[in-house]
Design a protein that fits this description.
47% helix, Rossmann fold, alpha/beta, 6 strands, 6-stranded parallel β-sheet, 19% strand
């Protein structure tokens, strides 16, 4: 399996690359922002891109925008969002397009590299892998406003 990694924090990006390489995954490249990620995907044609959601220049949703572009321009490349941010709206935006070949995991909940490698294999096979915490948030129903319930 060939992966590219996009994260603006060099220690996270390089550490992840090292752990994946040690686990037998081929890391085809690393990027620090969304634009570099898109160039890397076009050049390397990886099986999967691991993408942080918040990257330069604004640190809002550049990774998400890049992930959606990858899914449109390179439909054979799976995408795993690996973020420290629990944002159900980001999951909804991605799932609305096409859930197959997509993952959204929280960095703090990936306690073992084997969990990430398994998720990479599953999204590469066309599955959807979403952190249970995000699924729970997606499934929560809004409580009716107490003023309107009277």
């Amino acid at each position: 399996m060939r992966v590219v990694i996009a994260d603006d924090v060099m220690l996270v990006r390089s550490g992840l690359a090292r752990l994946l390489t040690d686990a037998g995954v081929t890391v085809a490249g690393e990027a620090a922002d969304g634009a570099a990620l898109l160039r890397l995907v076009a050049l390397e044609r990886p099986d999967v891109a691991i993408v942080d959601i918040r990257m330069p220049p604004t640190h809002t949703d550049e990774g998400l925008v890049a992930a959606r572009s990858i899914r449109t321009q390179h439909p054979g490349t799976a995408v795993v969002l690996l973020s420290q941010y629990l944002e159900p709206r980001y999951a909804r935006r991605l799932l609305a397009d096409q859930p197959g070949g997509l993952g959204y995991l929280l960095k703090e909940r990936v306690s073992d590299i084997a969990v990430l490698v398994d998720a990479l294999a599953r999204v590469t096979a066309g599955e959807c892998v979403i952190d249970p915490t995000i699924v729970s948030r997606l499934m929560q129903r809004r409580r009716p406003d107490s003023r309107s319930a009277s």
